[in-house]
Design brief:
- The protein is 37% helix and 24% strand.
- It has helices at 19-32, 66-74, 86-94, 106-116, 133-139, 159-165, 178-188, 202-207, 224-237; strands at 12-15, 38-40, 44-48, 60-63, 79-83, 97-101, 120-126, 143-154, 171-175, 195-199, 215-218.
- The strands form two sheets. A six-stranded mixed β-sheet has the order 3-8-7-4-5-6.
- The longest helix is centred in the first third of the chain and has 14 residues, at 19-32.
């Protein structure tokens, strides 16, 4: 970091992803930024579901979230896995998969699978998957079985987070999906504090349009590295500059 913004303009970073994901992000941020002021107040929690394995024998798995990787690991599944982003790829590799990254974008994931040609795939995902990956691959002639392996449930802001949003200290809010952006808009949209919204993609930024931010940044890459880049940018330049 080239310079730090001095109090009272030093921003609070409010992490609203599920607890495990927020904790991982906070640890990584601490390794890149000296003593960031972070508060974790999840607006959703992940609940793993009972699910039935498809009858087909898969040539490869498709993972579009780290939660799906965790569900597969709980079920004792291993093998080749195509993953939408680098963080999901790392999680899959740590879970014992031969993990292939599509660098954070669903279209690239589909293109890579079509080029490399595993014909039978399982796509494990949450209740509302984005990008219609399975449907598009089936339309291209692939056999893709799907299973819903987790869901997310809404949580209220913690009192400390609400107090921060009612204060005068700038608050940086990183948002990682359109769904989480919509949830944040409904929850933090009435904040009195100056808000800096960081979006993983233009789709996330559009979903967060109702949040009255004094500054908005959109990642150049739709993955954790892209989010970290704009987080450091916001901290280096000063949240309100």
């Amino acid at each position: 970091m080239q310079r730090q913004v001095m109090a009272p303009q030093t921003p609070l970073i409010l992490l609203t992803r599920p607890a495990d994901a927020s904790a991982r992000f906070a640890v990584r941020l601490a390794g890149l930024c000296p003593k960031p002021e972070v508060m974790i107040s999840p607006l959703q929690e992940v609940r793993f579901l009972d699910w039935v394995r498809p009858r087909t024998r898969a040539d490869a798995m498709i993972f579009t979230s780290q939660n799906a990787v965790a569900a597969a690991q709980r079920a004792g599944i291993t093998g080749l896995a195509y993953c939408v982003g680098n963080q999901t790829t790392q999680a899959a590799a740590q879970a014992g998969f031969d993990a292939v990254s599509a660098e954070g974008e669903a279209n690239a994931l589909i293109t890579r699978i079509m080029a490399e040609g595993p014909k039978v795939l399982w796509h494990l995902h949450g209740v509302s998957p984005r990008g219609d990956v399975a449907g598009r691959l089936r339309a291209a002639g692939f056999e893709v079985d799907e299973a819903v392996v987790y869901e997310t449930a809404d949580l209220p802001l913690l009192p400390a987070a609400q107090a921060a949003l009612d204060g005068i200290q700038p608050v940086i809010v990183p948002l990682f999906s359109p769904k989480s952006a919509q949830r944040a808009a409904a929850t933090v949209g009435g904040a009195r504090a100056p808000l800096v919204v960081l979006s993983l993609s233009s789709a996330v930024d559009r979903a967060a349009a109702a949040i009255p931010a004094v500054r908005r940044l959109v990642a150049r890459r739709p993955d954790a590295d892209g989010m970290m880049e704009i987080m450091i940018q916001a901290l280096n330049q000063g949240a309100l500059s």
